[in-house]
Amino acid sequence: MRIVFFGSPEAALPSLSALLAAGHEVPLVVTQPDRPAGRGRLPAPSPVKAFAVSRGLPTYEPERIRKDPGAVDRLRAVRSDIHIVVAYGQIMPGSVIDLPPHRSLNLHFSLLPAYRGAAPASWAIRRGEKKTGVTIFRLNEKMDEGDIYASAEEPIGPDDTTGSLERRLAQIGSGLLIRTLATLDVIAPRPQAHEAATYAPKLKKGDGAIDWSAEAADVDRHIRSMTPWPTAFGFLGDERLIILAGQPHLEAGAPPAAYEPGTVLSVGKTGILIACGGGTAYGIARLQPEGRKAMDAAAYLAGGKIRPGLRLTPAPGVPYRGAD
């Protein structure tokens, strides 16, 4: 088939690569414009654009495709059979969605109607789901509400982060996409059960603040769901610490009221033990002081900045007394 591919982040690359490997023609790749990145904040291409350029594929990067007066004409000139959308990152107008003969298909990283929205893998981990998956559906102007062509389940492991889970879902989804396209003319898409819908709104950097008054298992899910972005964090005084990995401990070794949430209980070669709600504790194994490289907890301890009795807080200089 002749396909226009819409996508931007790394998670979209397996699908684009699979389409090319399967012999589909991709005359145009639509992606986000270059954005400032890195310490120098210089404009950098999206991962999809970088891949497309490396393969000699033409790209189109509208700032807002809904408001671009030339979008429909640009896409009509390509004369594609179908649009494939994987984590493009913009809302597409109906004039673009319905333009080709087979309209537009979207690969979404959840089992729709669960977790409609921008961050499905993150929210599935955060809410303690044991499984998620991918769904291929017919795109329309509503948020992830189109009829379903195919889906596939994937378990969520106890150590999964959003990053590790998304990488697996991207690979699973790319294979499902190729199989769906091969049988597109014989599939009868099914409507979603809209009454069962749940949502996964876009995350913001501030969402990473850790609520240490939650029990350790919940803190662990929060940290994993925020990795690699927007990252989970706490403050030791005015120093922002990004928490990258660790594990919950069921008992803090003291009555629940003995320590305020966020208090450092102990430090050692195995990590930094932090008091959480319900008499539990979380052991930090890996962290990243802001502006520095990621390191094991033992390496951070060598700096001597943290010791038992100090407390991590959700904001600099703000006393934290847990839930009311």
Layout of strands and helices, then pairs:
Elements: E1 2-7, H1 13-21, E2 25-30, E3 35-37, E4 42-44, H2 47-54, E5 59-60, H3 71-76, E6 82-86, H4 94-97, E7 104-108, H5 120-126, E8 131-138, E9 148-155, H6 162-182, H7 216-225, E10 232-236, E11 239-249, E12 264-268, E13 271-275, E14 281-289, E15 295-296, H8 297-301
Parallel strand pairs: 1-2, 1-6, 2-5, 6-7
Antiparallel strand pairs: 3-4, 7-8, 8-9, 10-11, 11-14, 12-13, 13-14, 14-15
Walk me through this protein's architecture.
The protein has 324 residues and is of the alpha/beta class. The protein has 2 domains: 195 residues, 3-Layer(aba) Sandwich (Rossmann fold), CATH 3.40.50.170; 97 residues, Roll (Methionyl-tRNA Fmet Formyltransferase, Chain A, domain 2). The chain is 22% helix and 26% strand. It contains 8 helices and 15 strands. The strands form 3 sheets. The protein has a 7-stranded mixed β-sheet. Strand 1, helix 1 and strand 2 form a beta-alpha-beta unit. Helix 1 runs parallel beside helix 6 and helix 5 runs antiparallel to helix 7. The N and C termini lie far apart (58 Å).
